[in-house]
């Protein structure tokens, strides 16, 4: 059911994030430990912001097929440096395997990724899509619940108030779900960014939400592991938010509690509780 | 802007239709003469009915990329025999190049192909899609005007009365278009089949409609060209309907007049005038 | 390290072989139990002989990407009937993931599949390829050990004496390997067919060879399981040869011993020991 | 038969080269004017050097399918800046359409592109590939004449003396060709770079060689067109070498004479005559 990674911090070559770690996202595409499926081979995508002052949008490169054997992904990762990057590997929950159904999704300078699903989405899709703002609707290209959630959040004011918009989106999905006899439709971790801050949400209408972790502040990690050289090289404002830890270094990964969201900006991070809002 | 071919008659190996003719559909993917573009390399698709009594649906194989270098297409064509086949090569009019945006589209045992476009479709898409029957909507997978037209026709009774349903679909599109300031939205040739009969439509709200031809009855062709052996091998009920002629044999191809539709079944063919119906 | 399936018997719709069984090849692409990898998502291919008297070659349809989400494969399987079929799912052992590196390979009316590898193939490739007959060499399109093995077998007389040719091919690979310090280069199960008979080989220069099973004769299975209706429908000459069993029916699957090959033709099957021959 | 573009100069966003010009390479993929085919839709590739001091290799991103509808290419072009870039669009002259047959080819920090063909390559391929250094042979992944030419040039000392190595490569191909009754096998424009200098060759064994142009020095262009603002923005050491001009600005493009090669480095350019050398 997908795995994702969000990075913000000093600009790094993307392969530091995607390939080098012991249990990298690429490794997770073949051997995920905490996901619903061990294999996430129904597509992948990366999105990155540049260091070009005049380029305001992130690049997104998405494709069907597994991440583990994709050469384009490796070439980009080894040659592109970015201060803020999203990466996602897909295990389809039913919708077509096509480029427009891969994450991250982009709208303007915003990016969005999702792990999870809307239970019974097939029967809710039309009503959810109809609730998307008519102008925004035109930008929808795929058929996933993930993209619909993004465009509902945009409809509910994502660009002004991301946590509130996501809360209203979830509240709306739960409303529509219950109307159709689906008591607990939402299962999600979501990452969204405007290129400056990153918000990450962990929520399920019922039961355990998909796994979500954030990295310990680098200063603290250095104190924990003074012998590890590479920690010296990491910048203080390095933050990773991931579906599952990229490695086993003790103290490096912290679980995001259920029904919470975090926001990272300029090296600072905050955690808040998350509650759906009625719409 | 696409080219297509529909065949009905004695079961033939598909390469007889797709590759062998002098100006075959494959040739048209690279060198179309009558289309808006000479190149139609944004995807292709074939659909064929089998001779298996228990298999009621047609197979559809669609892919992005040009038809002219696709090995799968050639392999299938050289090894599959069918009595009724649709084939289409795509030049995108704006929507994503993906498998779910390639023709033919299928619903149950029906297939649909389209050449042309709905002018200003981008601004009409939401309203048109929202008019699709809510249950049928769930089967829509892409973002093309062509697929929307198909599902509107299904909504308006395609399975009971194809010509009437297509007339209502066109009428509805023209209504919605005019509401949005688009006076003459429809440009189309359409082929639709239930595996037994084939209906082909040629219509434009204004101006010249996309080209459409049908093959002369084989008996007549034999009389015209008594020396041509291969005409002896063709069955009497062989009929081809095409965007542009597959070759130059005098007398073999007849233009479908504007604002008309033809229907072929069991070797018999009829032509009728076509007028959009208000919905 | 790949999984494959070979079928010979009464013509069946290919999905009976590829999708319907409990642990079908499609299931094995995601959850292989006996292979080196659980996931075989680096490409797939099917080859089938038609029932067309004038078509002498098998069709082969191969593609990169996983089998489990490939629509073309499913469409073909649900609509094509064949008396003899090869199917293969790939986990690359190092060479590029491209269509020309997928199995089955075809030459004339022969097909070839392989599970396993030549240890140190990278360093042996040039010498092995240079030993291929100069005219045959021109037909080689990829870079796999599997394809090289096929073309070496063709060079050593596959079309006249398949078991002898494969024995000479293995003998030659072992010779060249030893020359380069690789004592035990060959690891293989191989299936090869001319459209009439199917030969299947199981051999490793050292250690345990990749798994290989053949189906029990249908008459015997019916005696074992008189209650199972579907066995009544299976023709007496149905034979499957597989990397791993397609299901758990007791008595249905028999392991091919190490250093053996089997040949199935016209419903008859024979097992023989297999020894590499010096060249 | 392919079109290509080489750029060296101030780092630019790649879309300035690939998409923005009036008759850009992307435009040439659909409407080439000077090539053998108007359509070059059998694959594409870009290669670019970064501005990362520790990254010594160029990135190469290649794919089958047309350049004109490829989103990954557009995304990269709009978000990646490079001081030296190769781009190529392919029209296959017979070999498989696959990623490993697309240009540019890379070896270490060298890149290579080719427009043209070796006449009768199919019959010469084995002998030419056998002449490649045994260690270099292992890096060959495709089946094109273009790749073989590159690896022969590497064998003949490309890394030490590019013009000499290419001259020996051409001499060798002509020798082998004549031995097989092909009097005039070579048809080529070639671009090769080590990330610092760019060499471009134009040669045909007989008849007219494929078209090749280089851009006028920017200072001279500014003098010719003092009113054009964008010329003010171009750096003095900007140089483009192209199969066909990217636009119609008078005085901007100069044909490379037949049997010549040019080399550009650090803004300086030189032209020399080119003669094959016997090997």
UniProtKB/TrEMBL annotation, chains A, B, C, D:
PROSITE patterns: GATASE_TYPE_2. Keywords: Glutamine amidotransferase, Glycosyltransferase, Transferase. Its EC number is 2.4.2.-. Residues 2-245 form the Glutamine amidotransferase type-2 domain. This is Class II glutamine amidotransferase. The keyword RNA-binding does not apply. GO terms for molecular function: glycosyltransferase activity. SUPFAM superfamilies: N-terminal nucleophile aminohydrolases (Ntn hydrolases). Pfam families: GATase_4 (PF13230). It comes from the Bacteria. CDD domains: YafJ. InterPro entries: EgtC-like, Gamma-glu_amide_hydrolase, GATase_2_dom, Ntn_hydrolases_N.
């Amino acid at each position: 059911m997908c795995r994702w990674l969000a990075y913000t911090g000093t600009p790094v070559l993307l392969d530091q994030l995607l390939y080098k770690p012991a249990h990298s996202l690429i490794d997770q595409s073949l051997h995920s430990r905490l996901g619903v499926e061990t294999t996430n081979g129904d597509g992948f995508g990366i999105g990155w912001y540049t260091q070009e002052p005049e380029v305001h949008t992130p690049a997104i490169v998405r494709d069907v097929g597994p991440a583990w054997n994709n050469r384009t992904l490796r070439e980009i990762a080894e040659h592109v440096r970015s201060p803020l990057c999203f990466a996602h590997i897909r295990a389809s929950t039913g919708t077509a395997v096509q480029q427009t159904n891969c994450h991250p999704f982009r709208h303007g300078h915003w990016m969005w990724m999702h792990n999870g699903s809307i239970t019974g989405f097939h029967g809710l899709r039309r009503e959810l899509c109809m609730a998307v703002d008519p102008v925004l609707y035109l930008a929808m290209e795929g058929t996933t619940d993930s993209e619909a959630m993004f465009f509902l959040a945009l409809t509910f004011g994502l660009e002004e108030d991301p946590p509130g918009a996501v809360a209203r989106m979830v509240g709306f999905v739960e409303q529509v779900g219950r109307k159709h006899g689906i008591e607990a439709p939402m299962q999600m971790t979501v990452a969204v960014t405007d290129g400056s801050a990153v918000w990450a949400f962990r929520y399920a209408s019922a039961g355990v939400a998909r796994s979500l972790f954030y990295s310990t502040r680098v200063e603290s990690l250095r104190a924990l592991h003074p012998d590890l050289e590479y920690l010296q090289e990491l910048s203080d404002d390095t933050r990773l938010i991931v579906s599952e830890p990229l490695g086993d270094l003790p103290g490096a990964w912290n679980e995001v509690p259920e029904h919470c969201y975090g926001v990272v900006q300029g090296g600072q991070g905050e955690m808040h509780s998350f509650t759906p809002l009625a719409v």
